[in-house]
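Box S1 | Example of a co-folding query
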Amino acid sequence: MRRRFKGIAMSSLAQKLTEIMEQAFSALELPKENARVQVSGQVEAAQFQCNGAMPSAKIARKNPREIAQNIIDQVKHIEIFEDISIGGPGFINITLTDTYITEHLKSLLKDVRFGIPSVEQGQNIVLDYGGPNIAKAMHVGHLRSSIIGDSLRRMCLHAGYNAIGDVHMGDWGSPMGMILSELELMNFDGDITMEMLAEIYPKASNACKEDKARMALARAATHKLQNGDESYTKLWREFIDVSIVGMKKNFDALGVHFDEWKGESDAHPFIDDMVKDLRSKNIAIDSEGALIVPVAQDSDKKELPPLMLLKSDGAVLYGTTDLATIIERKQSHNPSKIIYVVDQRQALHFEQVFRAARKSGIAPEDKIELIHAGFGTMNGSDGKPFKTRAGGVMRLEELISMAIEKAQSRLNEAELAKDMDKAERASVAHKVAIAAVKFADLQNNRSADYIFDIDRMTSFEGKTGPYLLYQAVRIQSLLRKAHVQGDIICEEFKITDGDRSLALLLSELPDHFASAMKHYTPHLLCDYAFKLAQEFSSFYGNCHILSEKDEALKLSRLALCQQTHKQLSLMLEMLGIEIPARM
Ligand code: ARG
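Box S1 (continued) | Returned holo structure for arginine
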């Protein structure tokens, strides 16, 4: 069966058309890069368009319409075009025959990867996201990193990479010494709890800010810990473990997964040798008592300060652990890429670390790609960083409860999940809440700031997570009513005016996925998922499905429904959003 389609390597229709156009461009000795075919911006005029005649005409010093005609003459004999003609100054407008669209659909339905190619086997990618800090309550600042990072991990997995998510906790810097010295001042000996840590850290941190002597104690404690002091290490381990329990609770509620629970401290065993090596190569140099790695380059427009490796008291810094963590990751995973999903405001830090990693040979350019996938700030409706009503930083736990409460009342308003028992209702509300929060975050280009608006994001209307869940559940229930079990085998699609645009949209998935992977931007998947849900909604409104009398057309439409559901589910899965069985 598969053989029949062997000639048509699965990809999107736009990609297939691009390949055809590339041959035409080459035959006419026009630049192949101009041959790209894309989905038409004007659906009334055509399904696809190629805009390459204009730039090619410039180079060939010819009339663009004439060039367009030459290109069309090369391909018009191929029996896939319903219409191929020139529009405006030289656009090539393309409309495919329903037979060809049908042929494509058939192969699409048989492909479990929906036309997405897989990367070469055995490539590891480490994704660094979440980044919560020990002893501090997780707050909304950690939300974006977790949501975006987890989505990128899922995308990388789907692309065929061996993707490893690492939480990279902040567990080694000066706050550790602040807590240790505070515990010592309290003469503490008992069991450490999360509540206690949440109280101690701000207290210690304030005390250190106000009192130099107190700060000196904290520094000394950090130093002792970093040098392996036994009793400090034991106490530190205790509060790390307590903190991790709290973090896991939050990440579980969010449905964010990590493969590794490592932290800055895991870089520690590599630091001494790294420092020695960089010193001996003269890459790290002494400067006013500290050890630094100059990273400025002649081509810099702005001055780039050096990366600090060691403070004058020998303490290590954020940049030191990040650099040594690359060595640790090379040893444990030999990754071809490391993606850091961290606040855009840390861009300078990562530029310094990456340059130091290149310069020192820790991460040679041709071996490891280093990417800072930065993100903007989550703001409140006042346009300033999101705060609680009282003006404080909102804890992640509070935010999740708030979203669940809101989802519950939205379900009530929409009269959904009515006949369920309490447990199922609660589980649906949880899924709706997480879908709302994640989709609201992911639908923005990650580098942009966005406004956290709980009312808007939980609505069942508009471009929201709950709307997508609603559409997915609606297809599920339709398929249930049709008694569809397993995969629908539809050999003959029937395409009418009502089905065509859904069929075409389904074929676009590989293009959207490729763009999202290229720029590490899940919002492109959000756009596609939303379009798909909307298109399905009009298809559902305009076409008879279960009530269709023509059995072949009914089967064909059910197959489209099932395919839409599969693709929507895949998009949501990659966004980290779970669909309830019913609603
Ligand atoms: N703990 C850091 C913070 O709260 C984020 C860590 C990001 N990852 C990294 N490798 N630096 O800002």
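The radius of gyration is 28 Å. Residues 40 and 48 are 4 Å apart (CA to CA).
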